[in-house]
């Protein structure tokens, strides 16, 4: 969850992490025991006990599988309809409803204190770990030590390793037994140690924050974290809509907003409920003008803080609306998209034309979507940012 570092979950982790001093960054890749000695020295300088540092680091070792995962990670390339159908199963819908009822008291407390509705937390809980069933089996200390020692992103992971020492000192992490995701996230909602320390809440009253075992702790902590990102209590986040076929498609997409009233005046209508007329919203077309359409309100931006992947983010937000009672989307009949080789070919062509699409990776990210939309406008095509074989052929 929090500032995630591994795919398919979030890639927004660099926003809040404390930079590492240059001298520490230079330790990467050298003698591992010397590196650990430096980590202990830094931890003690920050007020942590030498004993906690020794307990945490004494048996730490490099996990080559972690480094392999780090180099191989990629954002999900499945289109929205395929991805959402796969992850929003009947099982997850049924269990989500059951968990919201079972833990109703802590969900009510979380909404009172932080303003986060139960369906929002429950959707993340489902997508991250299948309600706690799949939390990862990588030793957390080894994962963090491996990534902090590696020279690719030491400035991101060294603070997390030191935060793990603090968790050991608090009695909230067992360096030998605590496991989680390959990038060091722990628990039912997959949080990194720094964020557990900062936002961790004892939901069950046992004096500890155990995100692996305690659903109450995980729910209340998730609420505190989402609140810290700027969630606006009482407001919607995503709403499925019906769009007129004569809409100016160039006005759709993230970063382009109108008030709900303005969208309604253009013929955009809700499939259920009412459009929030006084809120700004973007019109999202995950698979173009012939597929599902959603108004994304300001709270949708919080999902992007959790995870920068557009497909994951939109799926999580849509899943939360379903848990809150919204109907299944109208999937429409989208135009065929591009295969992975075709997407890379398109990105190469767009880059040659001067567009910033980022890495040629076959991922329909924000840069590629923006470039596609601009080129569609130039060619007189419907500018819905959905790349098709027809567009590729015209280029």
TrEMBL record:
Domain Peptidoglycan binding-like: 340-395
Alphabetized UniProt keyword annotations: Signal
Coiled coil, from the record: none
UniProt keyword GTP-binding present: no
InterPro entries: Lysozyme-like_dom_sf, MltB-like, MltB_2, Peptidoglycan-bd-like, PGBD-like_sf, PGBDSf, SLT_2
Record field: transmembrane: none
Signal peptide residue numbers: 1-25
Residues annotated as domain Transglycosylase SLT: 32-320
NCBIfam families (alphabetical): MltB_2
UniProt protein name: Lytic murein transglycosylase
Species whose genome carries this gene: Roseibium denhamense
């Amino acid at each position: 969850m929090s500032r995630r570092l591994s795919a398919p979950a979030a890639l927004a982790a660099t926003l809040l992490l404390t930079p590492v001093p240059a001298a520490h960054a230079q330790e990467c890749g050298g003698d591992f025991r010397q590196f650990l000695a430096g980590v202990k020295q830094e931890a003690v300088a920050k007020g942590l006990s030498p004993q906690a540092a020794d307990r945490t680091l004494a048996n730490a070792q490099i996990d080559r599988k972690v480094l392999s995962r780090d180099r191989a990670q990629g954002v999900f390339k499945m289109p929205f309809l395929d991805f959402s159908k796969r992850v929003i199963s009947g099982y997850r819908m049924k269990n989500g409803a059951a968990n919201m009822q079972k833990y109703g008291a802590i969900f009510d407390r979380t909404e009172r204190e932080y303003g986060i509705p139960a369906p929002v937390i429950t959707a993340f809980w489902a997508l991250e770990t299948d309600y706690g069933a799949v939390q990862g089996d990588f030793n957390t200390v080894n994962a963090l030590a491996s990534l902090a020692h590696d020279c690719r992103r030491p400035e991101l992971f060294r603070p997390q390793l030191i935060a793990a020492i603090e968790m050991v000192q608090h009695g909230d992490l067992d360096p030998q037994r605590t496991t989680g995701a390959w990038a060091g996230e722990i628990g039912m909602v997959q949080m990194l140690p720094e964020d557990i320390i900062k936002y961790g809440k004892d939901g069950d009253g046992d004096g500890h924050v155990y995100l692996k075992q305690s659903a109450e702790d995980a729910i209340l902590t998730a609420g505190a974290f989402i609140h810290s990102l700027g969630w606006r209590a009482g407001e919607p986040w995503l709403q499925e809509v019906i769009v007129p076929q004569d809409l100016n498609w160039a006005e759709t997409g993230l970063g382009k907003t109108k008030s709900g009233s303005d969208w309604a005046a253009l013929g955009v209508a809700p499939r259920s409920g009412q459009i929030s007329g006084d809120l700004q919203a973007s019109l999202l077309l995950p698979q173009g003008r012939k597929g599902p359409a959603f108004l994304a309100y300001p709270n949708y931006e919080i999902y992007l803080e959790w995870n920068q992947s557009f497909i994951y983010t939109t799926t999580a937000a849509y899943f939360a609306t379903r848990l809150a009672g919204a109907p299944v989307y109208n999937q429409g009949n989208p135009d065929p998209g591009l295969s992975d080789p075709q997407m890379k070919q398109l990105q190469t062509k767009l880059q040659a034309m001067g567009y910033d699409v980022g890495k040629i990776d076959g991922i329909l990210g924000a840069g590629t979507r923006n470039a596609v939309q601009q080129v569609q406008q130039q060619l007189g095509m419907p500018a819905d940012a959905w790349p098709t074989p027809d567009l590729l052929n015209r280029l």
